[in-house]
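Workshop exercise sheet. Pairs work together: one partner reads the sequence aloud, the other fills in the structure field after running the prediction. Swap roles for the next sheet.
Pair: D.N. / O.F.
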Amino acid sequence: MRPRWSHVALFGLIAGFFVARIPLIPRRRFDPDEFEHAHDAWLMWKGMVPYKDFFEHHTPWYYYVLRPFYHWIPVDASFENAHRFLMAARGLSLVLTALATYLVYRIGRRWQDARTGLVAALFFVAQPVVLQKTIEMRPDMLALPFFLLGLLLLLPGLERGPDSAAPGLRPFITAGLAVGAAIMCTQKMLFVLPGVFAGLGIWMVRGDRAGASRRISAILVFVAGLVVPAALTWAAFAAQHAGGEFIFNNFVINARWKHFETHMWDEVYDTSKPLLFVALAGPLLSLFGILRMRERRDGDVLLMCVGWGVFAALPVVPVAQRQYYLMLFPIVCLWAAQALLWGVERLPERLRAVMFGLALFGLLWKPVRGVKDEAHRRADEQMAKLRTVFERTQPTDMVMDGWQGMGVFRPHAFHYFFLHEEVRAVLPQMQVDGLLADLESGSVRPKLIAMDENLRALGPRFVSFVESHYTSSDGFFYFPNAN
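Structure field:
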């Protein structure tokens, strides 16, 4: 049977948005987060233990995935090798984006049909916030496929019916393992759990009494699967005498993280406004089917609980950056696809193709412009500065940096590689005083200091030390005085 023309066209558009990403990988400006994650994985490859030997507050699986790259690329030997690694890591993100997009398609196909899956996948890969974050190296890109795989695995488990005397347990334990793995890539994935448990709870209570014990067993094995990745990861760090630091840095510190207004929701809303409005109709259609048509839609309930749960959690997330919305947009895109296709199918048949095309044009206009906007955010200045670091320092030379990432493949002068305002807000003054004392005594001697506003914010004592012991020709790079 030949594929429908609309399926071919949708696949072509999805491929087009992927092809448009490729030129951005080497040229688009780096988020400082990318240098943070590259530096952390490099330190792990050199044998250091995160949380204990250096500060980090993300769960570690992404760093384990990056670490093998350092066996193949000697990143500290030259700027060219460092750049090659950065491109390879961004290429990995592109691969993970393709996997996430495929999983969005599979969820849509399982939930509704193949065309819903294709439309949802197109909407997902096209969204400006998704474009911005999915070409960067960051833990979210590994966590997202695990999360989507968990949803995909739960759907058939729910579809086998709460009234079944023996709902299969395998989908639930594998889904738990997948979601648990997502949390071990980035702890922000914890925010999907309230919605997941709400959806499972509703599924449990809606069935008859005969299958109650099996439904409870299904939820328990999901929880067991969820716990396994965290337990094994903690045990691995406990064996390295860093189990307490693993818990404290990933969960206690993040719970205390100071809130700074980022206005990221305003940007996300502005760039995806048409899609968000269309998506509002998705849960309404699901509710209509459940309440008015008396249909059994456990998959709809799960998606609604997870989607609204994540959306409700975002206002309470300390410093909700754009990457946090990666948890929400797959479900938003599924809802938008459902609503768009529902509307098109109620038009006269002769108008459906035209109106479908016009609707896609309207919903993809801003995303196409978003690709053009990202192409103008160049990394030339960053790479020129990074080249200077490699030209003026050796692999063993210590480099100190606030939040520019210039010391990405050099030993760092402080337990904290990055010192932006969020970190400084939770940084104990005793540790800052200890750093200053080490600098003044000479026990810590950076070969280069990248003096950005974050380092200057350490205070006049630090600034005075740098200006009296280091020399700069540009006000940014400081080198030790000749004497």
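Discussion prompt: The chain has two domains: 5-375, 380-480. What would you look at next?
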